[in-house]
Design brief:
131 residues
Length: 131
């Protein structure tokens, strides 16, 4: 394990396209900002481990077991009630875990992949702005 010392607002580079910035230090907690390509998932370790555990459990399901699922259970290719998945998606600028803005879009699914078009920038206004 490589151990580096950094102060607030200093950055560590991993390869050419991953940056880890020390955003804040309060007592024994360090807040990190991570900039990485959207193709690279970024998770807290406990979330990553939960995803791996769920994937292992899902891999154990046999196709012949699917017709026997209880009523109301989502089957592959179907849409859950309400037409939405159950995983919250955090986008840049939205609160993440109720504590400040998300550090990077890779923490949530990009809007284009959810069928939501990207927001257009506001059109420039001509003339003086209303007071």
């Amino acid at each position: 394990m490589l151990v580096l010392s950094r102060q607030r607002d200093e950055t560590i580079m991993i390869g050419d396209d991953i940056e880890i910035t020390i955003v804040d230090i309060r007592g024994d907690k360090v807040r990190l900002g991570i900039t990485a390509p959207a193709t690279i998932p970024v998770h807290r370790k406990e979330v990553y481990e939960a995803i791996q555990r769920e994937n292992r459990e899902a891999a154990k399901v046999k196709m012949e077991d699917l017709p026997n699922l209880p009523k109301g259970t989502v089957r592959p290719g179907s849409v859950p009630p309400g037409g939405r998945h159950n995983m919250p998606v955090t986008r840049p600028g939205q609160a993440h875990e109720g504590k400040g803005p998300a550090a990077h879009p890779s923490q949530g699914t990009p809007p284009q992949q959810q069928g939501v078009p990207p927001k257009e920038p506001p059109a420039p206004q001509n003339g003086p702005s209303p007071a």
